[in-house]
Amino acid sequence: MENNKYIKSKELLERASKVLASGVSSEFRKYNHPHALFYEYASGSKIIDVDGNEYIDFTLSQGPLILGHSNQQVLDAVNKYSEKGQLFAGQHIKEIELAEKINQIIPSAELMRFCLDGSEAVQTAFRVARSKTGKNLFLRFEGHYHGWLDNVAYGISVPKDENLGDRNKPKVFPWCSGLSTESKSEFIIIPWNDIEILEETIVKYKDQLAAVITEPIMCNNGCIMPKEGYLEKLRKLTEDNGIALIFDEVITGFRIGLSGAQGYFNILPDLSIFAKAMGSGYPISAIVGKKKWMEEISSGRVIHAGTMNSSNPTIAASLATIIELEKDINVYHRIFELGNKLKLGLENLSSKHNQNLLVQGPGPMINTSFTELLEVNDYRDTLNSDKQKLNRFISNLHDKGVRVIGRGLWYISATTTEKDIESTLEIVDKILKDL
């Protein structure tokens, strides 16, 4: 029976599919429920689709909207600065102001360059590391997401009826068709959160490794925290062996705190990537790092360019976002508090209804999965979850007005309210009862 709740979206998707490949402009948008949806308006913690359905939004546009939808200060800053021009193909004052601000609040940000998205900034970091070290390989971890380009699009999915093989010799599968087979030779991949394998691998390949890249919190799969001592060991091993440590803070940056995960864990990487929450939904990213590494760009040995980099609207949006976060000294306390209230509420409801719902994450972002495991520590653990049950859970939430990322990832914003959490838990209570 057809669901008439989404009839206008369905009609628009059919129209879009005639001119857009599969009707969307990003692959992940295809996997909404019951299909790609079209939205008309969003404000604060709420979003409304073209059929008039309103949702408490925990997707926050895949994470960027740390200040919620349509923050007035950000919109005003964008509008006002755009009146001076959209793009100069030259420098402008707010670009310096934003860089100075980031230099003040991000511990490792001695120098930086602005880009358009995380995928591009990651590749810039690789180029810097290779130039500085004279080495070619980089080490990455199973299930960590660093963009959609070829050399990071292996090891983030497992085909049906396949497995990852031995922990010491992982199998690596392409994410999709069309990847360059040569790009597979650019990296080594190992399980995350395993200090023994980490040390063995770095010692073995130290003369070939230019960099190690990691999500400091494994947000994209399971919202997994690093084990005690893991990041510290990673920092020491890379430092001792002349290897760049790259933190991919596309998600953790400006979400876990103003100083990112590096401030939260008090660990300084050599290079870091920021995006998403940095720009409140506008297309901006940054590669930041210690001067001795970023000098590769300053000197011209490494070329970094982009016609659209540092456009007036994106810089204004990012600067306004950070200023708004700085204004409210309690904003992160509230985000953590609400996230942990949601997390505890979900756990209590799982117990109440005898469900195997596992909730993990630090609070500003959490993950839900259905598994018999008491804890998920790496990507391999996430494969032991019931994806079909999760899909039913997320779909039921969506039909009842709660929007969550399909893989079980929830984001909290500065505009999420106590009432949002309470209403969501009431809905979850009913869903888990019948799931």
Topology:
Blueprint: H1 7-16, E1 39-43, E2 46-49, E3 54-57, H2 72-82, H3 93-105, E4 111-115, H4 118-133, E5 137-141, E6 187-190, H5 195-205, E7 209-214, H6 230-240, E8 244-249, H7 260-265, E9 271-274, E10 285-289, H8 291-298, H9 312-327, H10 331-352, E11 357-360, E12 365-370, H11 379-382, H12 387-399, E13 402-403, E14 409-411, H13 418-434
Parallel strand pairs: 3-13, 5-6, 5-7, 7-8, 8-9
Antiparallel strand pairs: 1-2, 2-3, 4-10, 9-10, 11-12, 12-14
Helix pairs in contact: 2-9, 3-9, 4-8, 5-6, 10-13
Q: How would you portray this structure in words?
A:
This protein has a seven-stranded mixed sheet, with helices on both faces. Helix 5 (195-205) runs parallel beside helix 6 and helix 10 runs parallel beside helix 13. Strand 11 (357-360) and strand 12 (365-370) form a beta hairpin. The protein has two domains: 4-70 and 330-434, Aspartate Aminotransferase, domain 1 (Alpha-Beta Complex); 72-327, Type I PLP-dependent aspartate aminotransferase-like (Major domain) (Aspartate Aminotransferase, domain 2, 3-Layer(aba) Sandwich), CATH 3.40.640.10. The protein is globular and about 60 Å long. The longest helix has 22 residues, at 331-352. With 435 residues, it is of the alpha/beta class. It has 13 helices and 14 strands. The model has no long low-confidence stretch (mean pLDDT 96).
